[in-house]
Each structure stands twice: as structure tokens, then as C-alpha cells.
């Protein structure tokens, strides 16, 4: 098999990309893929290991733990990006000038933060990325402090919960890992679940941003019952929403219309 020759730097970038999809890659497999000797691959891995990008394991390599976390977060940002953009665009129309808006650390809420840039509103969030996104805008932003959770770029824990106590917001927007007619809205990390609940308690209105990939998924812990929401914003087609529309008002961006409860 003829494999196009790559410069060492190009080959090393491709190794990083491949390792983001697989936990471990054997040296022999990399050598065959690039059409080079195993010694050449070992030199590439040495360069990447010295820069802290990969860790050598017996017979191969894996992404360093820090880099793996970053790739995981980046993957979440890119996953179902178009759906999240459409949901954010719709959600932004529900926000009025002068509102105080609570956002969780989800990537869906981050896309909404981008849509709200420079609006004359106040945003309360525990999401590090949303804080950075809004820090250079004219939008007033209140950060929830606490323990930084690297996997989700979020602040959680007792300090975060205490900082939300006594706050009052107009609308809260959040996302979850799972949405099921029986189990409701669920998430797997208990500290994140506690934070989402605390954010929702500050708000007069609550909106869940849930893309179609999460339908039918049940994670570890329930966040809130579906019937406590003011609306569910989703890209799921109406045919997949059986059992949900009876419990919550659905705003669907897949059909460009709103389905009432």
C-alpha cells in the first residue's frame, strides 16, 4: 500500500489525532499506517512524550491524562454542534433585555452564552468556558466559585452551592446527559446534579437544552422532573417525543414550530 510521505511534525499531529479516538496505539500499527519503520515511530513518540502530549506504554503509547481530558472536552464541544447552535438561537429569543440568566456548564449552555454576547443582561454561571466567553463582552457576568472540575470546565462543591444561595434569576438554561419519559432529566456526576438543581432554584423559569442524541438515555441521578420545566428545547423530531409532550412544553428546532403541552 502506498502511503503519502509525511513530515515528522505532520506525522506527530496525526498520531495525536488517532490517540484521541483510541486509548492505546501499538507502535507496529502506527508504523504500518504511516509506511515508516518502528524506529521512526519511536522517535515521534519520544518527541511527543517530551512535550507532555503522550505517555509511553509497553509496545505503544497513549495520550497523557491532561491531554485526554482536554480532548474529551473538545469532543463534547464539537458533538452535535449544529443542533446545539439551533437550540441556542431559539433559546436566545426567550431572553429579554434586562433579564438575569442562569447557565450551567454544559456545552449547550456555552453555545447560548455565545448567542447572548453583548446583550444588556446579567449571566450567572458555573461554567468556566461561559465565563471566558462573556468576559470580553458588554454582558455582565457573575461567576460561581468553588472546586474546578477539569472534565467539564465547571465549578462545583459547597462553595459553589453557597454562592448561589439567595440569588434570584429570571431564567435558567441547562442540559443533561439523559432524557427519558419515565426517568426524566438525568446526569451522572452527583456534584454537577447538585449544582444544576441549585441553579434552577434561583430561577422563575427553567428551560432544558437537550439534543436528540440524549433521548432514551438514563444516567445515574435525576435532576428535576420534566413537569417542573417551562419548556424543553430540542432538535428531536416530533415522532421521537412520544411520552414527553404530555409532560412538558416542547420547543422543537427540527420542525421550526412549537409543540404545546
UniProtKB/TrEMBL annotation:
GO molecular function: DNA binding; DNA-binding transcription factor activity; transferase activity
Keyword presence, Transmembrane helix: no
Residues annotated as domain HTH deoR-type: 8-63
Keyword line: DNA-binding, Transcription, Transcription regulation, Transferase
Coiled coil: none
Signal peptide interval: none
Keyword Lipid metabolism: no
One Pfam family from the record: DeoRC
Protein name: Lactose phosphotransferase system repressor
Source organism (scientific name): Meiothermus granaticius NBRC 107808
Gene: lacR
Amino acid at each position: 500500500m502506498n502511503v503519502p510521505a509525511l513530515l515528522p511534525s505532520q506525522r506527530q499531529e496525526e498520531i495525536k489525532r488517532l490517540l484521541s479516538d483510541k486509548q492505546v496505539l501499538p507502535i507496529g500499527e502506527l508504523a504500518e499506517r504511516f509506511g515508516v519503520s518502528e524506529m521512526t515511530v519511536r522517535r515521534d513518540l519520544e518527541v511527543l512524550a517530551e512535550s507532555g502530549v503522550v505517555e509511553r506504554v509497553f509496545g505503544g503509547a497513549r495520550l497523557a491524562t491532561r491531554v485526554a481530558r482536554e480532548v474529551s472536552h473538545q469532543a463534547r464541544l464539537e458533538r452535535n454542534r449544529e443542533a446545539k447552535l439551533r437550540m441556542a438561537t431559539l433559546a436566545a429569543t426567550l431572553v429579554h433585555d434586562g433579564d438575569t440568566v442562569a447557565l450551567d456548564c454544559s456545552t449547550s449552555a456555552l453555545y447560548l452564552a455565545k448567542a447572548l454576547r453583548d446583550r444588556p443582561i446579567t449571566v450567572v454561571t458555573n461554567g468556566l468556558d461561559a465565563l471566558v466567553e462573556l468576559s470580553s463582552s458588554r454582558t455582565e457576568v457573575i461567576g460561581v466559585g468553588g472546586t474546578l472540575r477539569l472534565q467539564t470546565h465547571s465549578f462545583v462543591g459547597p462553595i459553589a452551592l453557597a454562592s448561589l444561595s439567595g440569588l434570584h434569576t429570571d431564567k435558567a438554561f441547562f442540559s443533561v446527559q439523559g432524557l427519558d419519559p419515565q426517568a426524566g432529566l438525568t446526569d451522572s456526576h452527583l456534584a454537577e446534579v447538585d449544582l444544576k438543581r441549585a441553579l434552577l432554584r434561583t430561577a422563575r423559569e427553567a428551560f432544558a437544552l437537550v439534543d436528540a442524541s440524549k433521548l432514551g438515555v438514563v444516567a445515574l441521578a435525576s435532576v428535576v422532573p420534566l413537569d417542573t420545566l417551562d419548556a424543553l428545547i430540542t432538535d428531536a423530531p416530533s415522532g421521537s417525543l412520544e411520552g414527553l409532550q404530555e409532560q412538558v412544553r416542547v420547543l422543537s428546532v427540527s420542525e421550526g414550530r412549537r409543540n404545546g403541552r
